[in-house]
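seq:
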Amino acid sequence: MELRRIRADLHIHTCLSPCGELSMSPRTVVDRARAAGLDIVAVTDHNTTENAAAVIQAARGTGLAVLPGMEMTTAEEVHILGLFDPGTELGPFQAAVYRNLPDVPSKKKFVKDQVLVDAADYVTGFSPRCLFGATRFSVQEAVDLIHGHGGLAIACHVDRDSFSIVSQLGFIPPGLRLEAVEVSPRLTIAEAREAFGPFDPLPVVRFSDAHQPEEIGRATTDFLVASPNLEEIRMALAGEDGRRIIPS
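struct:
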């Protein structure tokens, strides 16, 4: 099978995230991703997957692949990306997260509107929960939950001084079965490795963590794969069958 280079930004928020701009609607995410030359993106709102289906639908026929995902906050306030196949039934996964997310009304916190939208950008509702809160899952439990629903688990923005596995724990626990670690747009991968170590044996990726339209694609990772989908990304992170990360 012929392999090709694809460009990925697998950490993008929508208007449902409490820190996401209202302008981060499904059609805007798709349009900006295409303008940035991306082949695949992931919708990773805080502790929720509920806007992912709308972005997937908005991308149909555009050539842009969209993965549903989540940026989960663990009990230690570590952010972990969970990335899933679009065909995954995420209802049970989401239900487990909500059961373990303290039910604090969003109006009790200083957060923006958490807007549910459809593929045409029409508002369908508002999430009443404070999605920015920490779940009761430990880092290990969060990774296990993601894997239990067929997903990939990536430690977010490991170079940041808050909400990263390094800032909160000081290290990556041995035996934690992450697929990769992510570096934020503020550093290159080389700079992060120099500052924090090589992260071996985990591969290192770099995504935008976009909360505003202009941030989409500001940090990306290129992969050599057969097609832009979850299984090919999984194989590239593992270096299987010729699939790999292409150094930037």
